[in-house]
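Minutes, project huddle
Topic: does the predicted pose make sense with adenosine monophosphate bound?
PN asked that the exact inputs be recorded in the minutes so nobody has to dig through chat later. Recorded below.
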Amino acid sequence: MTPDSDPECIFCKIVGGQIPAAVIYKNDQVTAFRDINPQMPLHVLVVPNKHVANTEVLEPQHDALVGAVVRAARDIARQEGVAERGYRLVINTGRDALNTVPHLHMHMLAGRAMSWPPG
Ligand code: AMP
Ligand code: ZN
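Predicted holo structure (tokens), as shared on screen:
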């Protein structure tokens, strides 16, 4: 059993309310807050309340949690009024993807037309 929270983790501290963030959505499994360095008109991070490092450590026991993160992102898109135009959901893992915070998080990016592939 891994602990639900890592006392050194910045996103665990946001989930626990120990450091401030612009939280726009919360339920018993998921918290979402505005990215401090937004890359799009709407840039939200959707995180599990429980500390999970990244996609490399996911086990079948996490399936419901990952589903809850994706559905929360969908609900936030509706809440923020971008569901019809569209949005992009991104999870970065590892060095090549420039993952910096070791607490699983899904970026929700929206608010303008995007290009593909990403840089
Ligand atoms: P990643 O590169 O996928 O690990 O993304 C980490 C993201 O967390 C970056 O977009 C940062 O701007 C964002 N971030 C880091 N610290 C905070 C914070 N205290 N509040 C909100 N967003 C943060
Ligand atoms: Zn954490």
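Observations noted during the meeting:
- Residues 10-110 form a domain with the HIT family, subunit A fold (CATH 3.30.428.10).
- Residues 10, 21, 33, 35-37, 45, 92, 98-101 surround adenosine monophosphate (ligand 1) (CB under 6 Å).
No decisions taken; revisit at the next huddle.
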